């Protein structure tokens, strides 16, 4: 009998399937032997309960089911978070951040799974009583987020939902929590694709996990670790920690490197900036709001590719609706740099546009016109001598607008106000026949130059300029809040108003371009029409500082970026960009490089990129509300004062490595 028993035991152990989180092999052996001598059959796992169509319909119509069915854009647009988070003791927060970053460990190989670079949305699952507020706030800066507090019905609903990259956050129950420590095990084995599991606490509490799950562990849950992990999964924070001691499932020294491939959010002190020095920025902007230079503002400062300061101030209109960092502003002439110039750069890279070619080479209708002799390079440099504005003779009239949409009035120009369908063609006819120009090319800032550049871009590309920009820049950079005609994508409450125009527009202009020329062209023009928020605009210019590269992908060649952002051969400007060297001596005296390039806009917007200091500064306002004749913004020099305050804050904190 003894000779027979040993082979039986060995055979039984080999054949017995062990469940997740199984006990020791001796426990398994004891249970298996007991089953031989017990009169009761061995327990088996109950088969999964199949839902009837009625039960499934009921679950899908529940609040959780409705949450699973969509990722509402309006929720992700309002990010509601500024940076850095408020702190009473930055030095202590900095020390804790550095320590927790060192102790954060990637426990399983992330290759092929992380980081998330090009995803439409992220699904985040967490325990109901542990909403990761700071994690969600930062994650929403990279993509749209669908957040799901865990409920018992979730495992049944998840397989029926649209597939999305999924993150599960968990830590140990505290106090009298009704939740079990292993609630997330109910998600094991579900056909929901690869999952990233973020654990806060002791790694010894982690057991067996599905092989397609990626595990990260950090010692505790706090704002620092939530921010670290949120950035890490999107490739904006380097994780390279190692386990200090062995656990039942991981040996000491375990840890995989998860690299940083794009900019994220950094505590100012990590980059040599004492955040208290930013108080001067707040003072100047808030003073401008108080003196009605503008109702509100957005500000972003990037240093070394990372956001070190981001804030929203004031309201959309005076005393109504606070500005959110995700709201969109009318960028006005910043369009020239953030849209048209980029399109020309891309086509120049591809050999589709020659800077020495003339207007008539792309636009045959100008062949017999003096304007046809200007070079593309001259248009970019504003060195043509053309009149400043697009000729709108005879078009600014109530006759071209109507309160009802029909075939004759089909172009929206304001809320509940439509423009005659023929108007853009009439604008083009005016340009052909009513242009003032000088006898020889001279420097004169002109919207006409960029109207012509848009036509050249579209002729050379064979497609609308906005489609080229979306495909080649805004989508690869994940700039979801940068584009033309924003009312087609976003709710009005997220669009910051500009002027009040009761004559042609019927009242408050919100979500429709203020510039009359761009408006009469249908909202998309080479000189104006772009809308965006400060964050997306800053990221776009950081790509230029990085030589045309983003997250390892080359969007423009470094040679093209250098050519277009350097001084042109005609005047002080760059090709398509303004330069600080043209009149911002006060900012240069504070440390800004003369090679700094960017652009400003009539609505009170500005963006500047400094290659030598690797710094990007964006300030967006709607100073033209309610009246574009408001000059307080310029007379108070708010843009210049804020810009100078940023440079005074640099190198004010000793970085300890």
TrEMBL record:
Stored Pfam families: Beta-lactamase
Official protein name in the record: Serine hydrolase
Keyword Transcription regulation: no
The organism's place on the tree of life at top rank: Bacteria
Presence of keyword Signal: yes
GO molecular function: hydrolase activity
InterPro entries attached to this UniProt entry: Beta-lactam-related, Beta-lactam/transpept-like, Diverse_Enzym_Activities
Domain Beta-lactamase-related: 292-629
Signal peptide: 1-22
Keywords in alphabetical order: Hydrolase, Signal
Species for this entry: Neolewinella lacunae
């Amino acid at each position: 009998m003894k000779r027979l028993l040993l082979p039986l035991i060995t055979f039984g152990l080999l054949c017995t399937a062990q469940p997740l989180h199984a006990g020791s092999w001796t426990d398994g052996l004891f249970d298996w032997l007991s089953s031989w001598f017990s009169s009761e059959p061995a327990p088996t796992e109950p088969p999964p309960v199949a839902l009837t169509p009625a039960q499934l319909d009921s679950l899908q119509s529940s609040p959780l089911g409705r949450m699973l069915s969509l990722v509402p854009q309006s929720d992700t647009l309002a990010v509601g978070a500024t940076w850095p988070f408020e702190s009473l003791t930055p030095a202590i927060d900095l020390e804790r951040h550095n320590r927790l970053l060192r102790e954060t460990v990637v426990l399983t190989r992330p290759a092929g799974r992380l980081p998330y670079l090009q995803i439409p949305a992220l699904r985040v699952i967490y325990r109901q009583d542990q909403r990761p507020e700071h994690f969600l706030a930062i994650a929403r800066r990279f993509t749209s987020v669908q957040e799901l507090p865990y409920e018992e019905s979730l495992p049944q609903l998840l397989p029926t939902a649209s597939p999305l990259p999924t993150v599960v956050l968990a830590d140990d129950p505290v106090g009298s929590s009704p939740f079990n420590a292993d609630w997330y095990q109910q998600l094991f084995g579900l056909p929901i694709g690869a999952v990233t599991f973020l654990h806060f606490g002791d790694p010894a509490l982690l057991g067996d996990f599905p092989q397609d799950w990626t595990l990260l562990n950090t010692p505790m849950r706090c704002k620092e670790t939530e921010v670290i992990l949120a950035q890490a999964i999107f490739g904006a924070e380097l994780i390279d920690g190692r386990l200090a001691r062995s656990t039942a499932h991981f040996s000491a020294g375990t840890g995989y490197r998860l690299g940083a491939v794009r900019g994220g959010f950094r505590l100012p002190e990590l980059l040599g900036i004492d955040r208290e020095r930013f108080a001067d920025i707040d003072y100047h902007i808030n003073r401008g709001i108080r003196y009605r230079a503008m109702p509100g503002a957005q500000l972003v400062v990037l240093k070394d590719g990372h956001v070190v300061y981001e804030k929203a101030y004031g309201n959309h209109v005076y005393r109504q609706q606070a500005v959110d960092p995700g709201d969109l502003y009318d960028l006005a002439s910043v369009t020239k740099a953030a849209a048209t110039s980029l399109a020309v750069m891309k086509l120049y890279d591809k050999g589709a546009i020659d800077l020495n070619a003339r207007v008539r080479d792309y636009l045959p209708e100008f062949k017999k016109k003096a304007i046809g002799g200007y070079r593309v390079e001259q248009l970019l440099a504003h060195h043509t001598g053309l009149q400043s504005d697009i000729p709108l003779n005879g078009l600014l009239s109530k006759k071209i607008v109507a309160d009802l949409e029909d075939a004759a009035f089909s172009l929206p120009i304001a809320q509940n106000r439509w423009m005659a369908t023929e108007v853009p063609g009439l604008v083009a006819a005016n340009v052909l026949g009513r242009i003032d120009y000088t006898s020889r090319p001279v420097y004169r800032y002109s919207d006409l130059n960029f109207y012509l550049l848009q036509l050249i871009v579209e002729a050379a590309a064979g497609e609308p300029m906005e489609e080229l920009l979306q495909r080649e820049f805004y989508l690869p950079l994940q700039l979801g809040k940068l584009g033309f005609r924003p009312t087609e994508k976003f709710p009005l409450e997220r669009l910051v108003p500009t002027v009040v125009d009761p004559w042609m527009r019927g009242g408050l202009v919100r979500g429709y371009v203020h510039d009359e020329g761009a408006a009469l062209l249908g909202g998309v023009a080479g000189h104006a029409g772009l809308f965006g928020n400060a964050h997306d605009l800053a990221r776009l210019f950081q790509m230029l500082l990085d030589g045309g590269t983003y997250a390892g992908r080359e969007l423009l060649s470094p040679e093209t970026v250098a050519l277009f952002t350097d001084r042109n051969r005609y005047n002080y400007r760059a090709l398509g960009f303004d330069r600080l060297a043209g009149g911002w001596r006060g900012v240069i005296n504070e440390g800004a490089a003369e090679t700094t390039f960017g652009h400003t806009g009539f609505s009170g917007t500005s963006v500047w990129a400094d290659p030598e200091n690797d710094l990007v500064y964006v300030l967006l306002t709607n100073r033209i509300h309610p009246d574009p004749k408001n000059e307080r913004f310029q007379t108070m020099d708010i843009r210049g004062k804020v810009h100078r305050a940023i440079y005074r804050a640099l190198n004010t904190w000793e970085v300890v490595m």
